[in-house]
């Protein structure tokens, strides 16, 4: 019944190890169908190589499993929280990609040092505050979503399509789950380069505002002129 | 006669270079059959690409070769010591994976900075004390096992499923040898991220106890809720 | 009509991800036909795996699209500027390769520490000044080419076959676009090694002039004795 | 006429990019036939993917090309010098592998921090002195061999089967060229781990002498007990 949605989630999930973002089973992706009020997500702890389209689990916005026999990812409440809060997004991706996770573990946002970063984020990549013992002890995964939403505040989630969860790892999103995967790739690459730029120049200031604006707007918003209008898959 | 056990050990051994944990012949894996009192282990110095299931060597707990024509790994006494000391484990893996070995060479435990680590270890990844000249000069490989056992002390070996041997490299274990391989992958990944977090924040404190407890218990013990009950291969 | 030129540009473009220089769509290559006054370049934002020879866009030196239905790369004016300024070159390559980009983001030239570097560049790999708000706000991509040309000044562009654009990433060139790809590979490798040499020896002086001269001239100019005269593809 | 020797050299050469030791054409391997007084070596600047067994060039100890139509590697005099000086070796390998080259560029030996290193070298991996302007200006490649020989002095070349050439990169050797390739892989891996151990512990002392002796002798000399006596390819 949800074949297309499951396929979309499946393709995103299996692309994560292919992009080198996932070791073992450290990550998951979800794709939402807003008209039907459900999303498809990876089953918990299943090997990427053994996983099939049919294994994707369909969950509704109350957190109820609507279709599928496997348990959904233990991170499902985080996905659900984000999909509910950010109505313009079509999917969420969670990885433990190494360089981005190194920043998350250190509780540091990723400073914006160059145009690669500015092509994807309208500023530094934010990091959440630490979660409280109470948040951890109760509905942990749902609260993980909450601290992300709290951190973003009033900015447009498509201007900042990802957040590092303190002590944990990145979550990214986009208009489609495929776009959320692309942002996850970019975040890992940006983190790697930022770390090396910091090693070369420990006091490096962030990018100049006019260059940030130029690059971000080349790809986003009404004046965007990157890519094709509708002919081929754009990045 | 020991075909299944040999196959299990063989699969674990050949997966090590596939996971990028092994260069040349730097590593080995063993799988135990407790009922029959033997374990299967990689032959010494044989190339991973040339190795076959039949090349696995069967050794008993006295260190006697029970089946096979090749010499077992020179690290066999270390495996034997660990398999004897930790009765709940089904296999042992030894690698010289780069980032974990960098910590081992420096004689430093791997500090626990994030949830990736907490998913596998209930605290930092321990490092042994240095071995004495006497230990090195006599039954070196057996004594290597002894310093690991000494370092673990009274903790549950499944709460700390691996140890770095000072100046040497990591050994890991698990309920099965496949699980020991998984821990070896995780240890390398954790070591890499810890090193980068330290580079970003040299005085970074370790993870908060409640977050450690939450993540470790999501995956281990009676309250675990990660993965599937029995449907598919869990991680 | 421009099949050979398109094929040359296509081969260069698809070799970039194969060399590990490109993530997603971060990069592009162009090949020029000086007799006909046109160059072939990658279309904007098209996935490398979906791209075909026919997708290459033919552009003339006024920046007009002469053949092809897709939009050319948004970096086309930078390529055009370089192809016009450096008459001895046959192609231009732009990547965001990680280590070279880390230097570019830090606004640092890549110091010349060894013979690998001296095999390709007759000194350090230059970095441009930062672009002004006005340059960024008007014909940004054309001005990007201008700051590269300004930085090179009067040196032979084949003595310095690449420049880092400040806050951005490397551009490289060569007698052919295939050679420009080779330089892009070398720049990334050189950047990686320079960063590590700096980590080992933060005050490391640059290479001795006589060793630089020796290695550069082994491969370039009338006394070159590296490679074959005409038998096989040389590097 | 020299088919077996050419094949041996060819196999070693094409294995270098497969081991990730070579980018572009940065490297070469030679295999010697002492009875016939010749060695086979890679042709200069030929692409690894285009190279065939027949392309290997046969050179004698006077440096004369005995068979083959291509120019031999420009590094041929270095190989010749080493093959003449170290009579117990069967082949030489030269790479610009990244981490080892970073040490060479910095003019630093690779300190011996762990057992991986002690399995291959009986102490730190030496680095040559810088070459003089006169050495560089005359028979540069032959003199490169000379500074390596000078640096080794009276030690057994099989106790120290490789040297870093200052400002340049590693050369390794072994009883066979296949063994020299293995050492080249080990040197790169050892360099990577040493750099990381230094990052974790900048004042880390080198390995304890008894542990060095134990590991080196497990694999080398009359008391060696690593590997198989003659059944299978040993490492």
Automatic annotation (TrEMBL), chains A, B, C, D:
* Pfam families documented for this protein: Aldolase_II
Catalytic activity field: L-ribulose 5-phosphate = D-xylulose 5-phosphate
Q: Which domain of life is it from?
A: Bacteria
Q: Which UniProt keywords apply?
A: Carbohydrate metabolism, Isomerase, Metal-binding, Zinc
- Residues covered by the Class II aldolase/adducin N-terminal domain: 7-195
One annotated Gene Ontology cellular component of this protein: cytosol
**Record's Gene3D superfamilies?**
Class II aldolase/adducin N-terminal domain
Q: What is its EC number?
A: 5.1.3.4
Q: Which GO terms describe its biological process?
A: pentose catabolic process
Q: Which family does it belong to?
A: Belongs to the aldolase class II family. AraD/FucA subfamily.
Protein name, per record: L-ribulose-5-phosphate 4-epimerase
Starting at the broadest rank, the lineage of the source organism is: Bacteria, Pseudomonadati, Pseudomonadota, Alphaproteobacteria, Hyphomicrobiales
């Amino acid at each position: 019944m949800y074949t297309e949605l499951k396929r979309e989630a499946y393709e995103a999930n299996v692309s994560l190890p292919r992009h080198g973002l996932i070791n073992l089973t450290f990550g998951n992706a979800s794709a939402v169908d807003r008209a039907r009020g459900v999303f498809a997500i990876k089953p918990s702890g299943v090997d990427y190589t053994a996983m099939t389209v049919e294994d994707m689990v369909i969950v509704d916005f109350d957190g109820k499993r609507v279709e599928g026999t496997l348990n959904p990812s233990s991170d499902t409440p985080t996905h659900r929280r984000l999909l509910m809060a950010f109505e313009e997004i079509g999917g969420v991706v969670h990885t433990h990609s190494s360089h981005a996770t190194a920043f998350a573990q250190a509780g540091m946002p990723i400073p914006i040092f160059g145009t690669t970063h500015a092509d994807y984020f309208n500023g530094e990549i934010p990091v959440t505050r630490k979660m409280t013992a109470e948040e951890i002890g109760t509905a942990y995964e749902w609260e993980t979503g909450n601290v992300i939403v709290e951190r973003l505040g009033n900015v447009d989630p498509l201007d900042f399509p990802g957040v590092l969860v303190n002590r944990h790892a990145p979550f990214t999103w986009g208009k489609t789950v495929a776009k959320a995967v692309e942002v996850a790739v970019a975040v890992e690459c940006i983190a790697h380069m930022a770390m090396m730029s910091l090693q070369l120049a420990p006091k490096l200031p962030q990018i100049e505002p006019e260059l940030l604006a130029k690059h971000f707007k080349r790809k986003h918003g009404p004046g965007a002129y990157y890519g094709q209008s509708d002919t081929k898959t754009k990045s």
